[in-house]
Design a protein that fits this description.
single chain, 140 residues, mainly alpha
Amino acid sequence: MPASPANAPNTAEDAEPASSTKSKELDFDRYMRLADAARAAGSNEMALRAYPHALRVRPGEPTALGRLGLSAAAAGDWVMATRYLFEAMLDDGGATPEEAQIFSSTFTRARGEVAKVNVTADTLGASVWLDGNEPPIPKG
């Protein structure tokens, strides 16, 4: 039975997969709408579950990857955010220029949260700071 507003899935897990190509595209659109609505409502956990379902239907789709990355960033999972935003930026198809800019700026912020490396070098040596902390000097 086709989904109608009355019997539409409430979660990504409730949505049943389709078998035909056209039905799979409808599944992709349904998962994206579900994930986008969850993200817009601030329910990042729901969005983080729904976008991967869309990506199973259309693997590597840059808009879904980018929005998954944005949801991960909003949830504070900077490692996941950098991974998916980077993948989204590799393929510029699908996202609007405005959304591509949001992916890029969020990736820059997330990358800074994952790893911060500052290196200062001069003729006497070098100092390396990781994530704002000077590593301990090895004894020996």
